Amino acid sequence: MTDLTKHILLMDGPDQKGLIYHVTGVLFRQGLNIIHNDEYVSPNGQFFMRTEFESATNQLDGPALLSQLSENLSPDINLRLNPKKKKNVVLLVTKEHHCLGELLIRYAFDELDADILAVVSNYNHLQPLVSKFGIPFHYISHEHKTRDEHEEAILRTLAIYDPEYLVLAKYMRVLTPGFVRHFSNRIINIHHSFLPAFVGASPYRQAHERGVKIIGATAHFVNNDLDEGPIITQDVKEVDHRHTANDMATMGRDVEKLVLSKALKLVFDDRVFIHNNRTVVF
Amino acid sequence: MTDLTKHILLMDGPDQKGLIYHVTGVLFRQGLNIIHNDEYVSPNGQFFMRTEFESATNQLDGPALLSQLSENLSPDINLRLNPKKKKNVVLLVTKEHHCLGELLIRYAFDELDADILAVVSNYNHLQPLVSKFGIPFHYISHEHKTRDEHEEAILRTLAIYDPEYLVLAKYMRVLTPGFVRHFSNRIINIHHSFLPAFVGASPYRQAHERGVKIIGATAHFVNNDLDEGPIITQDVKEVDHRHTANDMATMGRDVEKLVLSKALKLVFDDRVFIHNNRTVVF
Amino acid sequence: MTDLTKHILLMDGPDQKGLIYHVTGVLFRQGLNIIHNDEYVSPNGQFFMRTEFESATNQLDGPALLSQLSENLSPDINLRLNPKKKKNVVLLVTKEHHCLGELLIRYAFDELDADILAVVSNYNHLQPLVSKFGIPFHYISHEHKTRDEHEEAILRTLAIYDPEYLVLAKYMRVLTPGFVRHFSNRIINIHHSFLPAFVGASPYRQAHERGVKIIGATAHFVNNDLDEGPIITQDVKEVDHRHTANDMATMGRDVEKLVLSKALKLVFDDRVFIHNNRTVVF
Amino acid sequence: MTDLTKHILLMDGPDQKGLIYHVTGVLFRQGLNIIHNDEYVSPNGQFFMRTEFESATNQLDGPALLSQLSENLSPDINLRLNPKKKKNVVLLVTKEHHCLGELLIRYAFDELDADILAVVSNYNHLQPLVSKFGIPFHYISHEHKTRDEHEEAILRTLAIYDPEYLVLAKYMRVLTPGFVRHFSNRIINIHHSFLPAFVGASPYRQAHERGVKIIGATAHFVNNDLDEGPIITQDVKEVDHRHTANDMATMGRDVEKLVLSKALKLVFDDRVFIHNNRTVVF
């Protein structure tokens, strides 16, 4: 029996008639077996397709396949071919442990679809937790540094690991456009509110002040505008007048950690497209 | 066997030691039976209590009871005694039928805890629906009128009915402070977003634009700042990239009508206190 | 500019390599434009596909298209081609109004994707509501009739309308296999519990007795085993110890009516496949 | 300034007029300050009350207070007075890590309202995780032992710790009535279904088989009938046809761990009464 390897083909661009037919035809003629196929065309005519297929191990000539696929296609169409495999990530944290703890436990039991290469923090509070799991912890304080110096120090550390994604697992400092540019569409943040409600600092205090009856959390890609990047997933929880801002923060942590986990699962499995500051999630 | 009548005692003000003891004592000594009691003290020391009790029909001397209850109480404490009975309401609508339809069906089957005295609208689109249920419909167009003239005309019509509450069941015009002042804390609105996200017009378009993954609706009291009044209840529904702004509006209607119904049920049963632009809901 | 008509192609059967390629190819060569395409292959190798496409009005030769599509296909594969249009339905009700009211309001404002041809009931309680909407109401009492006689009488009435679907909008009598056989996979029921919890009568009483913290409702196709048919959609609501069985029933009604509406929307838009007593819902 | 200590007074039994008045009066006359008070009377006349109050540290004579409170009270009324403090617990687990991991992280950051004295398991799979947190792990295999011998061995280990509560954090063996009797109303289990749907083994396989659209988890007290004990809390998650039984199990784990955490928080804070196999949760 042949060993099989899974691959993910990602395609997006302006829609044209026959795109699905074209792609499935190329794969069919190559004898490649489609396991899942998702496609979507937005009302303004943008086409998105994610095709999971398998080949005999070591038998796929990726560049040749891509070249065949792009024949007759508009050059505006963006094609990527990924092996189905774990992503390499570095986590950035500050003092709160809940998202980090969630990701470490999942990682320890091989449920994260990612390898956590290292954890970087501007405080050393979480070092004991991280060391329990045998992962490098880099304490890079922001004190006595300019913002640029601090980010430079982080970038030097990241350079050691060369991660595919940065996960801001409650990293409580704003990143500059200069920093973000290094990881375009590869930084995922968890924001502790149901965006766009309560952008900025202290969202649970703001939520309590406003008297909302539901709180939430939002996982999103980071771009240059704080809290304005494409939303990946959100979830909510009911609260009432008896909940203080602190209670809301406590309850919110459970939402945050699951929303972040869910978003990572989707991103790491190549299920998330970005278009016009919105996501298409298969 | 004696006939029994239910009453609701509402009390709020600065907390002082022994308030529950005082109130339950007065009721106990009068032989009045407490059916439900809810109380809450906010972290900043505001006391709220709602006590549902019963007396032999026609045997309760309300003013005497209130006077006994207020003995030894700080004058800052606000006491109200309501019979448990249906509220009189007038609905304001524009063109959308879903909230109105929901309320009419509930009313027709005696599930609203209110009598709908009339429906007022700035369009006549919903007249056929309202007439099916034998309720007066007043078409008061805003065309060729200044905002003040229009509100004056509505006020004149409302004066006929003297309602305890106005329900804005998708009334799509902003009310002036002058109008609102006539019905302080007695106007309930349904806003088609998860406030404070997407205040103002076209919230579903805004939500789609921002790429949110959850939409919602908010029932709130109306005060002078548009969409800024105390929130009574909220609910949400998941959406994804496949939903257009129109789809979101369609799905949102189901949320809106149930959120409004739920809020009305709470308000009409005297379960909602307002304090510092927030609600305490028992 | 050409008028366009929408069509829905439904296909299910044992998976074989190249099915999507085959179907999209036939449509592509006919110049037919795919608007949406959904496909799914179950782990045990069953293929499901729903393709929404458009043709110039009156220009589609349906039988010819089906014949082309079925060339080279395994005869086990089931192909259907529906115009995208409203379904004809008859509602069966007993005494409860909430699902009926919901469907009537939606129908009155053209939001049901169906024409309600008639309402049949074993009681006359809901006649006044139905007449408000100008729909024929048939009161067919079950009293003084055997079960078979009663069902025969209903069938005779249904024969007048020849509906595509029967909707049991809180019809509280069990249908016999003999009756169900006339409408195989075309009867939709709303059950007032989160099936398979609390099958049979008085589910809210059962739920209260068991002390559950969440109640629910289930829309499903009816087959010969009571409450055992394929589930289309479900939803839930939180309850607590303060809710009596009656309160649960009241709250449950809001869930029931929305769950039924949602299920109907899916079925009437040809989005629901049945396989092995389960549904695939696109 | 005086140091203050919090206490929780729990009271339940047949309702009688004036109970709240009586209790609040005793506390008032002692100068004890009520922080929160919750009461509930069931429709069949059972009274429940939880009163959180504070006294100057070391100044409360508990037995004297209880004796004063029980004066004039029916002997059917059950009174308990607990200091507000962490509970001592032992966890029982089998092979699954998700609930255990959740509880360990919360414990490590002092968020559990409990001290985990030890973890007992019939497998040694989870020893590495437990040791990271410096908690004793007892591997007590059930192999080559009768059920009674196995339970005896566990009881001997538990005797070392004398825990107030046992938490079955995915302990996959049925406990005998003889074992349960030692911890009456003090064993909390997480069941991987929305009980009473899918009692017994493999609930996700059963759920998948039945084609449900929502899965859930239930935290409950354990009594002699498997999966039949009083429910503390439940939560759910939506699934669809694309989810295999395995996917449901994976998704279900997130629900299970949060439902268990939430139930423990409620129980450990003395917020849960048991009556007639149901819970009253304040």
Strand line-up in the sheet with most strands of chain A:
7-6-5-8-9-10-11
CATH class annotation of the largest domain in chain A: Alpha Beta
Structural classification of chain A: alpha/beta
Shape label of chain A: globular
Number of helices in the DSSP assignment of chain A? 8
Oligomeric state, counting identical vs distinct chains: homotetramer
Q: How many distinct folded domains of chain A?
A: 2
Distance between the termini of chain A: 31 Å
Estimated radius of gyration of chain A: 21 Å
- CATH topology name of the largest domain in chain A, in short, is Rossmann fold
Which chain pair has the greatest contact?
A-B, 30 and 30 residues
Strand content of chain A: 25-35%
- The CATH homologous superfamily name of the largest domain in chain A equals Formyl transferase, N-terminal domain
Mean pLDDT figure of chain A = 94
Structure description:
The structure is a homotetramer of 282-residue chains. The model of chain A has no long low-confidence stretch (mean pLDDT 94). The longest helix of chain A is centred in the C-terminal third of the chain and has 24 residues, at 245-268. In chain A, strand 8, helix 6 (177-181) and strand 9 form a beta-alpha-beta unit. Chain A has a seven-stranded mixed beta sheet, sandwiched between helices. The first copy, chain A, has a four-stranded antiparallel beta sheet with strand order 2-3-1-4, covered by helices on one side. The first copy, chain A, folds into two domains: 4-83, Alpha-Beta Plaits (2-Layer Sandwich); 87-281, Formyl transferase, N-terminal domain (Rossmann fold). Chain A has 282 residues and is α/β, with parallel strands linked by helices. The radius of gyration of chain A is 21 Å and the shape is globular. Chain A has helices spanning 19-29, 62-70, 98-108, 127-132, 147-161, 177-181, 203-210, 245-268, and strands at 4-14, 33-41, 46-56, 78-83, 87-93, 114-121, 137-139, 165-168, 187-191, 214-221, 231-238, 272-275, 278-281. At the A-B interface, strand 11 and strand 13 of A face strand 11 and strand 13 of B.
